[in-house]
Structures are given as C-alpha cells and as structure tokens.
Design brief:
Helix 3 links the parallel strand 4 and strand 5. Strands 1-2-3-5-4-6-7-8-9 form a nine-stranded mixed β-sheet, with helices on both faces. The mean pLDDT is 98. It has a single domain, classed as 3-Layer(aba) Sandwich (Rossmann fold), CATH 3.40.50. It is α/β, with parallel strands linked by helices. Helices cover 26% and strands 18% of the residues. The protein is built from eleven helices and nine strands. Helix 5 crosses helix 6. The protein binds beta-D-galactopyranuronic acid (GTR). The site of beta-D-galactopyranuronic acid has 7 residues, from helix 7.
Length: 398
C-alpha cells in the first residue's frame, strides 16, 4: 500500500551529489570535467540504461504541410523521420510540428513525446493518425482524435511565438512490457523476443533518445531555431524529458511536469508511488539494477536530485499538482531543491529558496530552477504551459 501520511515518511539522509563515492567536487571546472560524467554513468547503469548511439543515417521527409493551420496562425508540418543502419535495418517515426506563421525569425521550439498518438493532442482533424509503430495501439483510430487537445492548446504556444514538435512515444518504444520487438532498439540488436526488464536498455531511455533524434531533424528545419530547443514532458514523459536533458546538452531548458517516482520525486521518501510499485507496474521502464532498490530505498546511494543536477546550469522547471499525491509533490519539490548543490557551482542559486519549504499551491516560483504546485489533478494544463512559456521568455529575452 502506498503511504500518503507525511508522519510515516522514513528518516533518511540524502546523499551529497558532489561527494558521491569519494568524489570531492568543489568547482564547476571539476564538475564539468569529472563529476558530472560519473553521475551520468551511475544513472545509465542503475536507472535508465545505456544511451544509444546515433543511427548510421537519419533522413526525413515532409509528408504534409499546411500554411493556414490553426485558423491561419501557424504552419503545420508532419515529418516522417527515418533512422537507418548500414546493414539495412531501419525505423521510422512521425513528427507533428507547429510553427507560428508570421514569426520574424525562426523561433525557439518545444520538443515533447506524447501519449497515445499526436492526433489526440491537436483538435485539427486532418492530421495523420500517429503511434502506429505499436501494432496493438488501442488509440490508433479516429475516435481518439483531439481527446487530449485540452492539455495545452497549440494556439497558445504559437501565439506566444514558440514552435512545438511532438512524436508519439509508441513510435520509439510501444509502452508495454513486450514493446521491445517494435521499438527503435532493433536498429542496434534483436529485441524481438524480449519482454519485461532488460539489464542495459529501457523504454524511458529509448523515448529520451528519440527526443534527441527529433532535435537532429529540427536542426535541418529552417522554420525553427533548433539552437533554442526546450524539452518538455508530463508524467512518464516528464521522467523522459529529464533523462533527455541529462544526456543531450542541446536541450537548453528542461520541463518536468508531474514526473513523480523515477522523475523529480525523491525515492527515499517512499511517499505515493515507490520503486517497488513502479518497477512492478512498468517493468520495461527501468534497468534490472534499479530493481535492487524495491522496498529497499534506504540502500539507494543516490536519489533523484542527482538526476536533476545533470541539467545544471540550464533552466529547469519542476511542476507538481496538488491532488497528485501519487507523484509526491513535496518529494518533487525537494528533488529540485537539493539539485541546487550543483547549480551553486555555477554561481546560480537553483531554486533560490533559503529553506526546503515548498511554495504555496498555485505560486509559480520562477528562478533558475522553477517550481510550482498547481491546484488540481495529475495533468498538464494550459496553466502549466503559461508558466513554462513565461520561464522560456525569461531565458530567451535576456
Ligand atoms: C502512472 C505511473 C506514474 C506516471 C503515470 C503516467 O501509472 O505510476 O509513474 O508515470 O503513470 O505516466 O501517467
């Protein structure tokens, strides 16, 4: 049974990032040249798996384009990405891209994976169905069109001058324990018989790597400025956005919306979802080594502030929702707070709060590391998006 009682949170000492396993990092120089790669390696070995290489070739093709999308506000493209290996193996994914039509210059771009299929996150009914790489995708049909469009209206994003690109997570790795056989991992080996938990690879790792491949393509897209790329994700895709940002420094800002266990929330609090629950429910998300901490969080030599620290010194947004106790809002706040240990090496204050006390619900705390706890349930909403764009404005207008 998950614990929702703050008084039952076990006592724990949070490991120091900079003193991990005998390190003694005291400067940004030491962190960049030495400490950071140790922590990244730790996360690859014990949590999200190896970071895949680039495929031998990446090509892309515009499969649809409208210059009058969203009532004339936007140019909309659907782009088919093909990843190919010299031995003939290949894997495709479809990407939906919205760009403000009258942008004075190529705008910054938000990249995200989406659930179910990108046809569910836009109310424009003439896009292709997406997420079809999972042959059993129950949402690959016309009935689901637009059903998640309320999570963030592309109109709001392009009206603020930003572009937005999305690929369905199933196109990289179908989100179920036997999804390996239809995943992009098959570019690099034979995963056709694989099920459950692997020692070296994960679904989250593959989704995150997919975000980097999207960025490879956007670097060749003249409509956007890919040097100003921001990665965003909600829930399991919030964990994914953090992992993408940790591995790929081209993501200049990282947004973790309600990422919870395995994302921003400290595991040692054992509040809401735990390592045991998440690895049991989603065996394909984490490597085998992470399973040793099931019901054994006290043995973790690290915690999720380590993951967040890998984003430093770049802007990071961590968000919770007040009713989303499963994701442990306080634990998410504390993850962000304690990542400050690394931000401070760069002369940043991180969250810039003197004490580890979360701001009140619906206070949008904005700093180098931003945090808010929106009232309401587990979701990403236009209210969250407004804040992310405010933070982005702060970054790009300076
Ligand atoms: C839940 C899972 C969470 C979160 C969520 C989601 O079932 O336990 O960790 O990832 O799914 O992605 O919506």
């Amino acid at each position: 049974m998950p614990n929702y009682d703050e008084s039952k949170v076990p006592r724990f000492e949070l490991p120091s990032i900079l003193k991990f396993r005998g390190m003694n990092v005291t400067s940004a120089f030491q962190w960049v040249n030495h400490g950071r790669s140790k922590i990244l390696e730790l996360y690859r070995k014990e949590v999200f798996g190896k970071w895949l290489p680039r495929p031998d070739r990446i090509s892309f093709e515009t499969i649809s384009r409208r210059d009058d999308a969203l009532e004339g506000r936007a140019i909309r493209k659907e782009i088919r990405i093909t990843l190919a290996m010299n031995d003939g193996r290949s894997h495709c994914a479809n990407m939906l891209l919205y760009v403000p039509r009258n942008a004075p210059k190529p705008p910054p771009v938000f990249l995200s994976n989406c659930f179910k299929g990108y046809h569910t996150i836009t109310d424009e009914k003439d896009v292709l169905l997406s997420g079809g790489n999972w042959s059993g995708n129950p949402d690959f049909n016309d009935e689901t069109r637009g059903t998640f469009a309320g999570r963030g209206d592309f109109r709001d994003i392009v009206d603020r001058g930003y572009a937005s690109a999305a690929v369905c997570l199933h196109d990289w790795f179908p989100d179920h324990p036997a999804g390996w056989g239809e995943s992009a991992l098959n570019l690099f080996g034979d995963f056709s018989k694989m099920e459950g938990t692997h020692a070296e690879y994960t679904a989250i790792g593959t989704w995150a790597w997919g975000l980097s491949r999207m960025l490879d393509v956007l670097e060749c897209e003249p409509l956007v400025d890919a040097s100003r790329a921001m990665v965003c994700g909600h829930s399991r895709l919030g964990k994914t956005a953090l992992w993408a940002g940790a591995n790929d420094p081209r993501f200049r800002m990282v947004i973790s919306n309600d990422s919870g266990c395995g994302g921003a929330a400290l595991s040692k609090r054992c509040f809401g979802e735990t390592v045991e629950i998440i690895t049991g429910g989603f065996p394909h998300w984490f490597v085998k080594a992470f399973h040793q901490y099931r019901n054994n969080e006290a043995a973790l030599p690290f915690d999720q502030h380590f993951l967040l620290s890998l984003i430093a010194p770049r802007p990071l947004c961590v968000a919770s929702a007040s009713e989303d106790l499963w994701a442990d809002p306080k634990g998410e706040f504390l993850g962000a707070y304690y990542a400050g240990e690394v931000y401070r090496l760069f002369g940043s204050d991180g969250l810039g709060l003197a004490k580890p006390e979360p701001p009140a619900v619906d206070v949008f705390h904005t700093a180098d590391v931003s945090y808010h706890n929106r009232s309401g349930e587990h979701n990403i909403t236009p209210v969250d998006w407004k804040h992310y764009m405010d933070v982005a404005d702060r970054l790009w207008e300076c």
